Amino acid sequence: MKEMKLVYAAIIFLVSEAWSLDQVFKYSSLKLGRDANLTCGDKTWTEMMFVIWKLRLKNKDCDIAFHIDGQNRNTCNDGKSLQNTSEAQSFLFIPNFSFSDVGIYKCESVFSGGAEAYSINVSITVPPKLSSWLDWKGNKMVAVCKAEGGIPAANISWSHTGNTSTVETRDSSDGFFTVESRLELPTDMQTENVSCAISHLSWEHEESLMIKIEKAGRAFSWVHLAIPISIAFFLGFLFFGQKKLVKLRRGQESVVSSSKSPQTDDVEEVEPYASYVQRVNSIYNSSLDMFT
């Protein structure tokens, strides 16, 4: 029993010395939704006497410890645990890494012959969503490549050089980045040969995108042809409207002329009858003069 107390006292002393050691600072970026492992030195289970991880996370603080006598401790209660590889090397296992796991991970270990201390700044890596298309700036064709919603921001480069290119990076309130690069192209250029390359911390290799020409065709058809189509429709409306108005006016004139024609016929019938009466009266007056 006395020997066990001495062992504990030695461990406590060594651990306190480990806390006062110069810490080795590291940075690690882990992928969203992936299982991850963090190591505390290169010692094996057989060499270690004591190891403790102290986590300072976004929403909580917790610790996980291992002792050679089998008395372990874990206050995180979120799936994190101490495990060892097939070579008996100790590591901290983090399942399904998420935003709540981002923080500072401090590790102190005591082993035969010394102690080590590490401080690891753990961030998250989120791959962006990629898209590319052709756009128009006045009468100039512009190739666009976009990496949206990534952490950290992606890098974009073009297979074609020598033209004006602009890069815009926007970050949201929740830490996601959107990068959009625009490259002006000459009008006589073969656009099939244009592509953009996106590099990101989530990928081991660059992603390459070819420009979608059909999207540009739709943009040109609707944007560039909308105005002339509207003008042609308006002129057609005026033409057919004016033509219909002329027909309407002609119809009204024919109705008016047909309504006046019976009066002309009446005049033509009355005039011969009046002349006849006048001639009869003249003859009658002449006959009276003869008898008198």
Give a short synopsis of this structure.
By secondary structure, the protein is α+β, with helices and mostly antiparallel strands.
Q: Biggest β-sheet: count, sense, barrel?
A: 6 strands, mixed
Our measurement of the CA-to-CA distance between the termini, rounded to an integer number of angstroms, reads: 187 Å
Overall pLDDT confidence: 75
- The neighbouring-strand order within the major sheet is 1-9-8-3-4-5
Topology:
Elements: H1 2-20, E1 24-31, E2 36-44, E3 48-57, E4 61-67, E5 73-74, E6 81-84, E7 89-94, E8 103-111, E9 114-125, E10 129-137, E11 140-150, E12 155-158, E13 165-171, E14 177-185, E15 195-199, E16 207-210, H2 213-291
Parallel strand pairs: 1-9
Antiparallel strand pairs: 2-7, 3-4, 3-8, 4-5, 6-7, 8-9, 10-11, 11-14, 12-15, 13-14, 15-16
Structural notes for this entry:
With 292 residues, the chain is an alpha+beta fold. The protein has two helices and 16 strands. The protein has helices at residues 2-20, 213-291, and strands spanning 24-31, 36-44, 48-57, 61-67, 73-74, 81-84, 89-94, 103-111, 114-125, 129-137, 140-150, 155-158, 165-171, 177-185, 195-199, 207-210. The longest helix has 79 residues, at 213-291.
List descriptors:
292 residues; 34% helix; 4-stranded antiparallel β-sheet; elongated; alpha+beta; disordered N terminus
